[in-house]
């Protein structure tokens, strides 16, 4: 009878120890998962900041190009292009070659 009680008591102690070990194992697992997720989240935040900066750079470039496009579409832009690339001269203008 004492041995049955002793066996039951040792089984309960073993079950309690096993339960504590399971809880500690689960807690450790959760701790490592949370740390990994935090590291990944920090990495994602850095990537987001880098991509946002790139987006702002591209938006500024787009604004600059749109402004240039508006200028090229204007009469002044067309005249400048014609002068610089096609040798256009206005009515009152005289071509002077500096290299000669």
Derived structural class? mainly alpha
Number of domains: 1
Contiguous runs where pLDDT drops below 50 for at least 5 residues: none
DSSP helical segment count = 2
Number of strands: 0
Largest sheet: none
Oligomer: single chain
Shape estimate: rod-shaped
Overall radius of gyration: 39 Å
Q: Mean of residue pLDDT?
A: 90
Strand content: under 5%
Through-space gap between termini:
124 Å
Q: Helical proportion? A: over 70%
Order of helices and strands: HH
Short description:
With 100 residues, the chain is mostly helical. Helices cover 84% and strands 0% of the residues. The model has no long low-confidence stretch (mean pLDDT 90).
Structure, explained:
The protein is mostly helical and 100 residues long. It has one domain. 84% of the residues lie in helices and 0% in strands. It has helices at 2-73, 75-86. The longest helix is centred in the middle third of the chain and has 72 residues, at 2-73. It is rod-shaped and about 125 Å long. The chain starts with a helix and ends in a 14-residue tail after the last helix.
Descriptive keywords:
rod-shaped; mainly alpha; single chain; 100 residues; 2 helices
What topology emerges from the helices and strands here?
Elements: H1 2-73, H2 75-86
């Amino acid at each position: 009878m004492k041995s049955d009680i002793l066996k039951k008591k040792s089984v309960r102690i073993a079950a309690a120890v096993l339960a504590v070990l399971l809880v500690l194992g689960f807690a450790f697992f959760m701790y490592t998962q949370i740390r990994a997720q935090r590291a990944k989240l920090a990495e994602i935040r850095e990537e987001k900041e880098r991509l946002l900066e790139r987006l702002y750079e591209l938006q500024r470039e787009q604004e600059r190009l749109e402004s240039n496009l508006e200028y090229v579409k204007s009469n002044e832009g067309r005249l400048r292009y014609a002068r610089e690339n096609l040798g256009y001269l206005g009515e009152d203008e005289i071509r002077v070659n500096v290299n000669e």
